[in-house]
Each structure stands twice: as C-alpha cells, then as structure tokens.
C-alpha cells in the first residue's frame, strides 16, 4: 500500500537578527553551501530568480531527521552537513530562535527612536510551525519529538484518507494566513491524495524597513540593461550614504543594512553589462560569508525597485543532480526513512518531489518577502585630506542579490534580477 508524506517549509526574509548566544554556525554554513549549489543549477536563460536557501535547507533538514543509512549519508553530503550530524536540529533551532528575537530587538530600538522623533517601525516577523498528520498514522515518536523540540511544530490531526482535497485547501489557507497571503496554493492540485500521511509546515513572513529609508523624491527613471541588452528606463532609487563596499575580480559588492543592522541586502554587480554569468561562475559560499563583513564607504547608490513573484518550481531533478538520489528512491527500493516511520521491504517512504515558491518586493521603505518549500514523499510498495567623492554604484544591469544575516553570513534569500519590471 502506498502512503504519501508531505513536509513543507515556508521561509521568509528577515532583516535584523540578534546575535545568538547559541551555535548556529552549522546551519549557517550549510545553508550557504546549498545556496550556491542551487543558484548554479537554477540561474539559467537570462531570467529572474528568487529562492530561499534557508527555506529549502530547513525543510530538507527536517526531512533529514527521519532519514537513515545511505539515504541519510547522501542527504548529509548534499545539504553540507558534517559527518557528525547530531547537532543539525539544535543548530537550526538556534537559528530560528535568533530570528524570533529579531522583532523584539527592533521593537525596542523603535521605542527609543520614537522618543527622539525618529522612525519607529519594528521588524514584522511571523514564524509558525505545525504538523498536519494523518490521525491514524504510526510515525516514530522520536522523530515527532525532535521536530517538536527543535522546530516547535504543533500537532494537528487530519484525515487525508477521507478528503485529501479539503486537507490541501486547509493547509494552503494556513500557509496564506501565516505569510499574509504572499504564498498561495503552495501545494499543487493533486499533490495530496488518500495516501498522504503528514504535512510538516514552517511558515515565516517578514516585512522590514531599511536602516535609513530611500527618499521617494529621489526615485527617477533611469536606464537598466534588461537581460544584458538594450537599456530601458525603469524606476531607480538613489541614496548617497555609508554602505558596505568591496571591489572583486569581475564584480563589485554593495550591502545595504536593514533596521537593527543585523541583516543586509547584498548586491553583487558585474563589471560588464553582460557579465552576470561570469560573476555567477565565481560565486562561492566563502565569498558570500566574506560579504557579510564589507568595509563601509561613501557610496552614491542607484538601485532599481523590483518585485518578484515567480511560480512554484519543482526541485526534484535539481536535488537528484546534486547527488540526493536514494531519498527519491533511485534506484527503486533504496529510500530509507526508517527514523521517520518503520521501514519494511515493501512499505517505505521516499521523496517524490520538492516544491518551492517565493515572493520578494524591494522599494524605498524596505523589503517584504516570503518563501515556501514542500518536500513530497510517497510510501512505496517497494591623515586629513580632502574628502574624496563617493563611489558611484549604478545597478543598471543584471545582478545577483541576497538577504544576508550579518553575524553569520548565511543567506535567507539568494537570486538574480535580469528584468526588474
């Protein structure tokens, strides 16, 4: 008998994380490792791209908690986990805790700012976790306890067997509610059926202001070389201020802080109008980490407004190409998720697909974003000088961007903008 298991993660941008006292280095480094791998696979054909490596990594980390044997070893390699993976869940728990502290921190900053007549908008952040489980399904209690302890997932019994379509609607509504309607219909039609046994969901929503907002009065039409071709006039924000900056071989890096200064918007701008692919080929996890520590300089920044709302993408083939094969039951009979539910020779779980969906909007006030990942699993029967002028950085060509946690350097979002329209 086949059974279907769905694990979902809904991730989002965050903008000012507090320095966590616990260790989330493992989660941070692993997330950047997967971020670069996915970007290289998905950034094609001069199209926009928006993914949340944090969302994808977290969803698969929760799935990893139920993996065993060769499946666990393969997932560890693709997800950039060390050979000793016992600290994976606590590390992601620490990272989530730092996100939750962020809005509290910025709320306090807002109160102090308001006393002096300054801006007082705190980070709006919502993190919600839930297990939607078939009411009569026998999952291992250790797996459920680990997810509860480290991801705070509440349990909600469901009856997928009686009405899978209604269950999908219920879960999709929960996702939409948690992400302020930014992520809708994550679970595709017919993705759930009478064999579904679990949907593990983690939903996040973020709305964050810049540390120092761009003035709408300075936003003017300026040229942007869409897809590296002919210039087109688009709304371009402009601000002269102290921003992180570094010149690298083939591209420049600029970082713009959000309120609280623990998170930043990172731009990697190619030197050449059609130099995006060359810049992407140089991208590494170490470069991303280094960009969290850019030296502040006087910058005249021209940055296009943009909003990306791409359709759901399926990641199964991408993850298989990266080496995660037995988790997808390739070859047949090789999937091993015995730590999630008892595995029998002719009755076991495997991943059938991974769905991912994102939203991001960048304007004069800041950023709003959300993301979602769904891992679908089947049960198979088988000195004083004149001050120099500011450095002009005109983001008028396709570029790489990231939303990055400054203390650790990990990216919640990573993508490219080839057409801001």
Which tags fit this structure?
alpha+beta, Antithrombin, Chain I, domain 2, Alpha-1-antitrypsin, domain 1, 9-stranded mixed beta sheet, 8-stranded mixed beta sheet, 27% helix, 34% strand, disordered N terminus
Helix and strand pattern: EHEHHHEHEHEEEEEHHEEEHEEEEE
If classified by CATH, what would the architecture of the largest domain be? 2-Layer Sandwich
If you average the pLDDT, what whole number results? 86
Please identify the structural class as seen in this structure: alpha+beta
CATH topology tier name of the largest domain: Antithrombin, Chain I, domain 2
Number of domains: 2
CATH superfamily of the largest domain: Antithrombin, subunit I, domain 2
Number of DSSP helical runs: 9
Q: Give the low-pLDDT segments.
A: 1-22
Note the main sheet.
9 strands, mixed
**How much of the residues is beta strand, in percent?**
25-35%
What is the terminal-to-terminal distance?
48 Å
How would you summarize this macromolecular structure in one to three sentences?
With 421 residues, this protein is an alpha+beta fold. 27% of the residues lie in helices and 34% in strands.
Provide structural commentary.
The protein has 421 residues and is of the alpha+beta class. It is 27% helix and 34% strand. The protein is built from nine helices and 17 strands. The chain has helices spanning 25-42, 53-64, 69-78, 88-115, 141-151, 164-178, 276-281, 285-290, 316-321, and strands at residues 3-9, 49-51, 124-134, 154-158, 196-209, 220-225, 231-248, 251-257, 263-270, 295-304, 306-308, 313-314, 348-362, 366-380, 391-394, 399-405, 411-417. Strands 2, 6, 7, 8, 9, 10, 15, 16 and 17 form a nine-stranded mixed sheet that branches. Strands 1, 3, 4, 5, 11, 12, 13 and 14 form an eight-stranded mixed sheet that branches.
């Amino acid at each position: 008998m086949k059974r279907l298991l769905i694990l979902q993660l809904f991730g989002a941008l965050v903008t000012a994380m507090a320095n966590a006292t616990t260790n989330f280095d493992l989660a941070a480094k692993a997330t950047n490792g997967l971020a670069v791998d996915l970007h290289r696979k998905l950034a094609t054909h001069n199209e926009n791209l928006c993914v949340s490596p944090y969302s994808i990594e977290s969803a698969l980390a929760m799935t990893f908690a139920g993996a065993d044997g060769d499946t666990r070893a393969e997932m560890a390699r693709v997800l950039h986990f060390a050979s000793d993976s016992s600290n994976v869940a606590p590390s992601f728990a620490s990272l989530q805790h730092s996100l939750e502290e962020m809005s509290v921190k910025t709320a306090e900053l807002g109160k102090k700012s308001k006393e002096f007549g300054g801006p007082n908008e705190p980070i709006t952040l919502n993190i919600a976790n839930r297990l939607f489980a078939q009411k009569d399904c026998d999952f291992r209690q250790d797996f459920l306890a680990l997810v509860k302890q480290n991801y705070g997932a509440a349990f909600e019994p469901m009856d997928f067997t009686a009405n899978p379509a209604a269950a999908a609607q219920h879960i999709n509504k929960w996702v939409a509610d948690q992400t302020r309607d930014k992520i809708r219909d994550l679970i595709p039609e017919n993705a759930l059926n009478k064999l579904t046994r679990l949907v593990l969901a983690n939903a996040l929503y973020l709305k964050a202001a810049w540390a120092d907002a761009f003035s709408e009065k300075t936003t003017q039409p300026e040229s942007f070389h869409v897809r590296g071709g002919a210039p087109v006039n688009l709304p371009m924000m402009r601000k002269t201020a102290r921003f992180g900056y570094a010149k690298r071989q083939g591209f420049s890096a600029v970082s713009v802080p959000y309120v609280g200064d623990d998170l930043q918007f990172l731009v990697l701008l190619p030197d050449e109008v059609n130099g995006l692919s060359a810049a992407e080929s140089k991208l590494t996890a170490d470069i991303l980490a280094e960009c969290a520590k850019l030296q502040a300089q006087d910058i005249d920044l021209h940055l296009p407004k943009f909003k990306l709302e791409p359709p759901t993408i399926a990641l199964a083939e991408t993850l298989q190409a990266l080496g995660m094969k037995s988790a997808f039951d390739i070859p047949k009979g090789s999937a091993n998720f015995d730590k999630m539910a008892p595995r029998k020779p002719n009755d076991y779980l495997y991943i059938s697909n991974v769905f991912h969906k994102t939203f991001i909007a960048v304007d004069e006030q800041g950023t709003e974003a959300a993301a979602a990942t769904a891992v679908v699993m089947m049960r198979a029967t088988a000195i004083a000088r004149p001050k120099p002028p500011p450095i002009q950085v005109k983001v008028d060509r396709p570029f790489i961007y990231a939303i990055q946690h400054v203390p650790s350097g990990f990216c919640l979002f990573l993508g490219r903008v080839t057409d801001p329209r």
